[in-house]
Design goal:
Layout: E1 13-19, E2 24-30, E3 33-40, H1 45-52, E4 83-87, H2 90-96, E5 102-104, H3 121-134, E6 138-143, E7 146-152, E8 158-165, H4 167-177, H5 199-225, E9 230-234, H6 238-248, H7 250-253, E10 256-258, H8 262-271
Parallel strand pairs: 1-4, 4-5, 6-9, 9-10
Antiparallel strand pairs: 1-2, 2-3, 6-7, 7-8
Helix pairs in contact: 3-8
The protein binds adenosine-5'-triphosphate (ATP), pantothenoic acid and potassium ion (K).
Length: 274
Amino acid sequence: MKPQRRRGHRENIWLALEIGNSRLHWALFTGQTLSDTWDTDPFSEYITQQLAQCQTFNDLPPEIFPPSRRRKVGEKNSPHPPIFLASVVPQQTALWETHPHVRVITLEQIPLLNMYPTLGIDRALALWGAGKTWGFPMLVIDAGTALTFTGADAKKSLVGGAILPGLGLQFSSLGEKTGQLPHLETEISSLPPRFALNTTEAIQSGIIYTLLAGIKDFVTAWEQLFPESKIVIKGGDRILLLNYLQIQFPEIAAHLIMEPNLIFWGMREIITDH
Ligand SMILES: Nc1ncnc2c1ncn2[C@@H]1O[C@H](COP(=O)(O)OP(=O)(O)OP(=O)(O)O)[C@@H](O)[C@H]1O
Ligand SMILES: CC(C)(CO)[C@@H](O)C(=O)NCCC(=O)O
Ligand SMILES: [K+]
């Protein structure tokens, strides 16, 4: 599974790909060093088939490897780097599995104890990456398509967690499943009045204040169990949520570490030698 060092080739280049429910998250590594990250839209079968034909780094389609990033990789005909894949979208995983340069990461590779078989690989990798970086016990909050809490104790044993609809899903489900409510943007430019007098602010108030209160409640409960634990927040809505937590519950926000690349740290831990 280890990326091979090749003579005459820039050392140990590998790509990490995390397939989330909204988009794909990529990272370019040279050995242990994360040199770049970017996001792309999910792929069609066509692009994945095209990818299977690629022989060198330069053949990678621009939808995957934006031209602005190519100069970092060096020589034109560098061999195709391995792509280490962690996916929580089985249909997208299926498109990649047969690709000659793709290695799919599975739960068995992650040394966390007490995992259950259907645990999301993103949750396991993020928790492992955070714990290896800041120490265990550890709680990870992923503010992604789904919002998740995932915690482990000092023995690196999964304590458990929780899954709820993320910020975007909460807005879209109200917009889609009701006759009269609009589908609002996830961006909230400022905290609305809690008791609102118009529909937009009433929706924003309901979603944001219950999310912030929910995060506070989970963090408080975790800290009662593990007072010495670090807590790290990741995911596409991490900045928005942390900003409003700072206003609403500054004592909680002060405990949170923000780190978007936890999954890549987790992959690095299990893929490369130290
Ligand atoms: N450019 C963007 N595209 C999509 N979502 C975005 C973007 N910027 C911020 N977001 C927010 O990020 C959330 C999705 O988070 P993220 O991209 O981490 O999810 P994901 O692809 O499901 O990944 P994961 O499975 O790791 O959570 C949405 O609720 C949305 O509000
Ligand atoms: C909860 C999500 C969607 C978060 O990305 C993912 O981790 C997943 O599909 N998990 C499987 C169920 C579980 O973790 O218990
Ligand atoms: K997700």
